[in-house]
Amino acid sequence: TYDLPKREYITLNIDYKQCGIGGDVPAMAMLHKIYKLKGNEDYTYTFRIVGYSKEKGDFSSLFKKVFPLE
User: Fold this and answer.
1) Rounded Cα–Cα distance for residues 66 and 70 (Å)
2) What does the CA dihedral 43, 63, 51, 57 come to, rounded to 10 degrees?
3) In this predicted structure, what is the pLDDT of residue 65?
4) pLDDT for res 39
5) In b/e form, how buried is each residue of 51-64, taking b as 16+ CB within 10 angstroms?
6) Which residue in 56, 53, 57, 37 sits closest to 45, CA to CA?
7) Is the alpha carbon torsion for 58, 60, 18, 37 positive or negative?
8) Mind listing the pLDDT tens digit of every residue in the chain (70 residues)?
9) How far, CA to CA in Å, does 13 sit from each of 16, 17, 24, 59?
10) How far apart are CA 36 and CA 21, in angstroms?
């Protein structure tokens, strides 16, 4: 389920750095060289967290929306 229990506050931790993607074995960190992130380069990314309630309609419709960057 995607529902979080009702609480006064919820903590969400988002990892800042990753090591890469592209391994053939999910349980092992064996990445293909072309997918490894280089430690001596700067990387940037953005993400948006959007609140949702049932009154906003179908949850899957949020995946099709493009929200403006502010």
Assistant:
1) 12
2) 180
3) 73
4) 80
5) eeeeeeeeeeeeee
6) 37
7) negative
8) 567 788 888 887 777 666 555 566 666 667 777 777 788 888 887 777 777 777 877 877 777 777 777 6
9) 9, 12, 27, 22
10) 7
pTM score: 0.36
Q: Which helix (H) or strand (E) holds 46?
A: none
**CA 30 to CA 17: how far, in whole Å?**
17
Instruction: Identify the CA nearest to 67 among candidates 43, 44, 50.
Output: 50
| Paired strand residues for 20 | 36
Tokens of 16: 């800042």
What's the chain's length in residues?
A: 70
Alpha-carbon span 44 to 9, nearest angstrom: 28
